[in-house]
Amino acid sequence: xxxxxxxxxxVAGIVAGFINxxxxxxxxxxxxxxxxxxxxxxxxxxxxxxxxxIQSIVGSASFRQQxxxxxxxxxxxxxxxxAGSVLGALIASNFNEELMRRVIGGLLLFMFFMILYKPEKWxxxxxxxLHRAPKAWVFVIFFLIGIYGGFIQAGVxxxxxxxxxxxxxxxxxxxxxLKVFITGVFxxxxxxxxxxxxxxxxxxxxxxxxxxxxxxxxGSRVAVSWGPRFVRIILLVVVFVSSLExxxxxxxxxxxxxxxxx
Length: 262
Fold this sequence. Notes:
Layout: H1 3-22, H2 27-36, H3 41-65, H4 75-90, H5 97-117, H6 120-123, H7 136-151, H8 156-168, H9 172-196, H10 202-226, H11 228-246, H12 249-261
């Protein structure tokens, strides 16, 4: 592998880590890049988890230091998502990934309008006691989110944020902090499956992860210091662009422009 590929991996990791602390979907940058440098899709999917884990550790430590969340507040959301992530990792090689990308893209577009329609839910906490068990449907939702996170990871942060805001009653800053910690824990479970299957390229993954760590530290600081209104704007932009990418709209636009100027 050429030296400049290492530089690109680190820079992509920084960008992805930063985005994941404020919104999510940084894997939409790193997954295609890992495949571009020569990793098979299944190996790229597994290798990407190293960066996710490292950025989650760094981001969680930073959010915790800034008193954005406590570990006890995550427990009711962590348990079902961790269980789901194991199942998602087990079925990762037996599902139509392209179909899932389209479905998730449509859901993200729907989420974009949810964020746009009721901004107060994302900015102002509703004082729900996160130490008490939530309603049963919240467990089901987080189990399904865990399945998706174990399967492909890209975009899972958006669904964790929505679940924490609507199911947990948190504002977007606490939701971001909890999301990062929960993602890190269920990534450990998913990685166990990928390690057992010998699907991880450790050298490439660790190079990418070094960038993820830097981006996570910077992003977590910006998220807390700039406040929920700023983070909501970033979330809107990233959700909208990610939905267009996943549904194939961006590819259609690019192809149309190429045809126009051909």
